[in-house]
Write a structure and sequence with these properties.
Length: 211
């Protein structure tokens, strides 16, 4: 939105865009939203109304002047000068670099993708049966199946988890086939018993009917 960009520029507010799979940045934003909403709800209860526009400036000011454990030396956002910001950036880069070293994934690796549609279901595989290849990498994010994904959304083929998952899939398939066999066998037996009973029932002649 052009108007929003112009307003932010006039207030010397920098815009930082986050990509779809960057859950670290999204988590920070959602945590901020939750904090503001929590403070708002307290004011709603105290004042007995929901006029959030009357409280927003005070809530944001309180947030900016409150000490944050995630910032260098527990500073408040308002106290973050250029040096403190640079230190925070360096700390984050070092943390991310260390995290990247622990990720055993790279371009060309074959992986399974986490099934997000299984989240609210009791049944179904946790990982995709289809195998994909990592096409690109950007830090601890990977481009797989036409979208960027984080490392915890991918499972490398051949690792311990993947082996266990394959065994689970094979076991589920075996149990499903065995259940189908038992059901089919039971249906055949029931059909056979029914046919036998029909043969034993004597047919009535016309003289046998009572009027």
């Amino acid at each position: 939105n052009t108007k929003i960009k112009e307003f932010l520029k006039s207030q010397k507010i920098k815009i930082h865009m986050a990509e779809t799979a960057d859950k670290h940045k999204m988590g920070m934003i959602e945590r901020f939203n939750r904090t503001i909403r929590s403070k708002m709800q307290k004011l709603f209860i105290i004042n007995g109304n929901f006029k959030w526009i009357d409280y927003l400036n005070d809530v944001v000011q309180n947030y900016n002047e409150t000490s944050h454990g995630s910032l260098p030396d527990g500073k408040a956002p308002k106290e973050m000068d250029d040096m403190a910001v640079s230190r925070k950036v360096i700390d984050d880069l070092e943390h991310n670099t260390e995290m990247e070293k622990q990720i055993d994934l790279d371009i060309g690796d074959k992986v399974r993708v986490k099934n997000t549609d299984r989240m609210f279901k009791k049944e179904g595989n946790y990982w995709s049966e289809k195998i994909f290849i990592i096409e690109k990498r950007k830090g601890y994010r990977f481009f797989v199946d036409k979208k960027w994904r984080s490392a915890n959304e991918l499972m490398k083929i051949g690792d311990v988890i993947e082996t266990k998952q394959k065994k689970k899939i094979d076991k589920e398939d075996y149990e499903k086939k065995e259940k189908q066999k038992r059901t089919l066998k039971k249906e055949k037996i029931n059909l056979k018993v029914l046919r036998t009973k029909r043969k034993r029932i004597p047919k009535k002649k016309d003289d046998d009917f009572e009027y």
